Amino acid sequence: MNINVEHQPNCRAIAHIRVPAEEVAKQRSSITAYFASQVRLPGFRPGKAPAAAVQKRFGDDIRSELEKQLINDGLRTAIKNEGLEVLNVLSVTDKIHHDTDKSFSFSAEMSLAPKFELPDYTGIPVKLPRIEVTDADVEHDILHLRERYASFEDIDTPAANGNVVVLGFTTTLEGQPLAEAMPEAPDHLKAIEENWFLLDEEEDFIPGFYAGLVGIKKDEQRTLSLTLPEDFAFEALRGKTLDLAINCKGVKDKVVPPLDEEFIKKIGGGEMNEETLRSEVKEAIRRRKEQARETAKSNQVIAHIFEKVEFDLPQELVNREAQRRTNDIANRALQQGISQDELVKQQDEILSSATNQARQSVKVSFILEQIAKKEGLTIGDQQLTYALANMAARQNKPVKKFMAEAQKSGMIERLRDDLLLESALQFVKDKAEVEETEPEPEHCDTHSPAAA
Predict the structure, then answer these.
(1) Residue range 431-442: average pLDDT?
(2) What are phi and psi of 298, to 5 degrees?
(3) Which uninterrupted H or E stretch holds 263?
């Protein structure tokens, strides 16, 4: 068998394979014999039809099966002889049965796993904050917990920061309703029949909107002229001045319940007291900080190994991962209220971001896979079963039924691969050199947003 492999960029290769006439004849004879044993031809006993008759009657089928076997055998031989690690056969072309010497030739384009030298992955330096839970941390979380149970009571005094204003408005642009002047503008800028806004010094709606509402009273009407900044999310309105005709339907004060026995029993049951509440909150904060520390450790280790080695990546895998991430970004944006038109305008930026993320993900996966091989890491059946059982529980499905579905869909092998990469990452993290730094303060918004 004559084999010539052309290696190309992006982990592709084209194998040109020529199968000699003797092998072609041997395979054809074997396939014809199999057909003869399985088919019935008039005038011949089952399995006794001569090869020539079988060839004449089933020539196209025999030829198709012959090509399939010759291609499969040729690829197996090429992969073995050339030491190729094939991820996928992309196409098979130039299939020719040569009349001159009765040989068969074809070309196969393949996607290959990249080859590279592993960087040093032990003793990776990482900096992680020391875990420390202070009384201030506990007080902060308890306040946040109390704010979740806050109520809003009507007040007659003018609105101030910290109050909620219930209002509706209509918007005009240069004297024309925004809905007519710019139909493609986001709906929440055109008009709102009624909504609650929690006034704060930090503007998170339209710049100047909250400041313009300070001092407003129930039943008061007020017009705000707001010029949008040059970095406003909706590009067509950047630098434009919107006039919002506001009708205040009420002002409410946010009332946070006191940390008393009634509140503690409400959230924790009859056995809960302030001491046990503080203890549970403190432990929850510790777990949260430990999780954040582990995430930071993973990120630093991944960034280190990503930067330490360069190699080509299979473009098909990068494209597939980039498409998945693009879909995720788009779905999240739609859930946050961004319009389809705005997404189209941002599609180049979204695709660029998703592609960069995909390249890192694919590259790190190959590195971790090689680390797992070098260290002899494996995923046992017990570990796999435990992971599947957890997935079934999260989806509220019977374990046996879930596992049967996973087996049928191919999920089990994909999960085994994912667990192996996680195991390799944990191995590298365990071998990292950790330098502890001063604890980092947690920055959480203590203001509960009003209902949208």
Answers:
(1) 88
(2) -60, -45
(3) helix 261-268
Q: Hey, what are 296's tokens?
A: 């930071």
Which architecture characterizes domain 151-255 according to CATH? Answer: Roll (3.10)
pLDDT, tens digit, for every residue of 325-341?
A: 999 988 888 887 777 87
Query: What ranges do the domains of the chain cover?
Result: 2-112, 151-255, 263-437
- Cα(452)–Cα(446) distance, rounded to whole angstroms? 18
Model pLDDT, residue 325: 93
Q: Which pTM does this prediction carry? A: 0.75
The amino acid sitting at 253 is D
Per-residue three-class SS string for 97-162: ECCCCCCEEEEEEEEECCCCCCCCCCCCEEEEECCCCCHHHHHHHHHHHHHHCCEEEECCCCCCCC
Over the stretch 31-52, which tens digit does the pLDDT of each residue have? 988 888 877 777 676 666 777 8
DSSP-derived secondary structure letter, 235: G
Which SS3 state, helix, strand or coil, does residue 407 take? helix
**Which two structure tokens, joined as six digits, stand for 253?**
């004060």
Please identify which residue in the block is written with the tokens 């001159």: 100
Task: Confirm or reject CATH 3.30.70.1050 for domain 2-112, answering yes or no.
Answer: yes
Q: Which of 428, 363, 369 is nearest to 126 (CA)?
A: 428
d(CA 197, CA 210): 8
Distance separating alpha carbons of residues 230 and 210, to the nearest angstrom: 19
Q: How far is CA 237 from CA 210, 228, 234, 269, 316, in A?
A: 19, 7, 6, 52, 39
Strand, helix or coil for residue 309? coil
The CATH number, out of the four listed (2.40.30.10, 3.40.50.2300, 1.10.3120.10, 1.20.1250.20), of the domain defined by the range 263-437: 1.10.3120.10
pLDDT score of 94: 94
Here the tokens at position 356 are 């960069």
